[in-house]
Amino acid sequence: MSATASMDEFEALLNESLELATPDEGAVVKGTVLAIEAGQAIVDIGYKMEGRVDLKEFAKPGQDPEIEVGDTVEVYLERVENARGEAVISRDKARREEAWDRLEKAAEKEERVEGAIFGRVKGGFTVDLGGAVAFLPGSQVDVRPVRDAGPLMGIPQPFQILKMDRRRGNIVVSRRAILEESRAEQRAEIVGKLKEGDTVDGVVKNITEYGAFVDLGGVDGLLHVTDMAWRRVNHPSEILSIGETVKVQIVKINKETQRISLGMKQLQADPWENVEEKYPLESRHTGRVTNITDYGAFVELEPGVEGLVHVSEMSWTKKNVHPGKIVSTSQEVEVVVLEIDTAKRRVSLGLKQTQGNPWDNFAASHPAGTEVEGEVKNITEFGLFIGLEGDIDGMVHLSDIDWNRSGEEAIQDFRKGDMVKAVVTDVDVEKERISLSIKALEGDPFVDATTGVKRGAVVTVVVTAIEDGGIEVEYDGMKSFIRRSDLSRDRAEQRPERFSVGDKVDARVTNIDKNARRLGLSIKAREIAEEKEAVAQYGSSDSGASLGDILGAALKNKEE
């Protein structure tokens, strides 16, 4: 009975000791390398258990395995025994478990971890963090896009853990965060040594449309295009190239953002210091057109001194023309200085002033009465515009086209492009107007007809038309009209129909209106005047003779 109890107790104690001594599957255990054969290491993990591990599991990424017989190594026990009676062990999994414990502690403390980039995957790279594999996104490799990551592969370097998920086995790291931190420290140190106004050497790193970035030895500064030269610079590449060493001045340092503004022109003499002396008002200079806009053209008088020729100062005659149709870029032009504002660094220039006012020139060479010839440029409802020398126009008003016809009727004889002659009647320089007259080319028929004719004179006219209100007559080629009430002294004879076209009639001149070009005629006034003259010469009604006798005698005497 006691012997049986002793055997049971011994068996129980033996089983208990075996359970305590045998490691659990999934644990990391220590073992000794017994041999290396067929690319594998045979490892004794104790408890009469051995396992095999591929040699590659003992190698770091990109390196040969470092393992020798007798080395003590940690392995991960996956199964106590396989079909061959060997333990299934793994060095990779042991390293991974160890690495995860270490990385979790580093992530909690936000410490850097060391790893090596060993592969490329979609969107980035794989990194070995001493047994655990992490993902390095392409955007986190460097502060700037990396085209060739070859030089970075297999090199141990620090990384910052951005994200960890042990359950899913995901780790995301960043190399860029380490570089930015290091760069920030270096930048702060360099910026602290710089002062505004210092002159330093730098290397052009990058060129953009608005300027260039210059490396000052670990920190970049911006050299804006407006600070490169006193003259106009359309693009930084005109004067700089990548890799070029340049001397610059520290213009401004922002301590908060650590941004540095640089300048090159500040190291050169300011051309505006004596602009007023070199370019007095109304002086003439030759410059080069550097830029053309809708409102004018910029002309460079010298490097760094540029003036604007406003569109209104470009031409006397071309008022609504784009500046690009008058001048072209890089053209050499002569200009006149109109105004200088040194505070705003502005020079107002004039182009038309070098050519002389064409209206002044025309007035001097074409006084009133001068005959000119030009092309009909435009026809409007109020007259004709004639092109004249000096690229200016003169206008012939409707009333100045023809002496005898209305302007509306006479203007129908003209077409654009016709060459016509006219006489200058007036030049208004201030209003830039030239008045012309076509009808003045011929003498005024009214003046010709009335020369020597005085009010009260009797003239012979020819009837040209019969109307209800009177008759139309012509005197020396000039039309006139005698009203019904002026056709006779006798009211019964004031009938237009008693006249016929072609009849010659004597009439008395009652009015000569040169402004309105009208000749007033009256048959009635002539008859009354003749009656008075006869009475005065041959007697009066009081002498006993009748009016018929007097007029008869007068007429008889006149006929004789």
TrEMBL record:
Q: Which GO terms describe its molecular function?
A: mRNA binding; structural constituent of ribosome
Entry annotated with the keyword RNA-binding: yes
What SMART domains does the record point to? Answer: S1 (SM00316)
Q: Name one GO biological process term.
A: translation
Residue intervals of the S1 motif domain: 26-92, 110-176, 197-265, 282-352, 369-439, 456-524
* Tagged with keyword RNA-binding: yes
- Transmembrane segments annotated in the record for this chain: none
The record ties this protein, via PANTHER family, to:
30S RIBOSOMAL PROTEIN S1, SMALL RIBOSOMAL SUBUNIT PROTEIN BS1C
- Please explain the role this protein plays, according to its UniProt record: Binds mRNA; thus facilitating recognition of the initiation point. It is needed to translate mRNA with a short Shine-Dalgarno (SD) purine-rich sequence.
Protein family according to the UniProt entry: Belongs to the bacterial ribosomal protein bS1 family.
Name listed for the protein in its UniProt record: 30S ribosomal protein S1
Q: Which organism is it from?
A: Oceanomicrobium pacificus
- This chain is encoded by the gene named rpsA
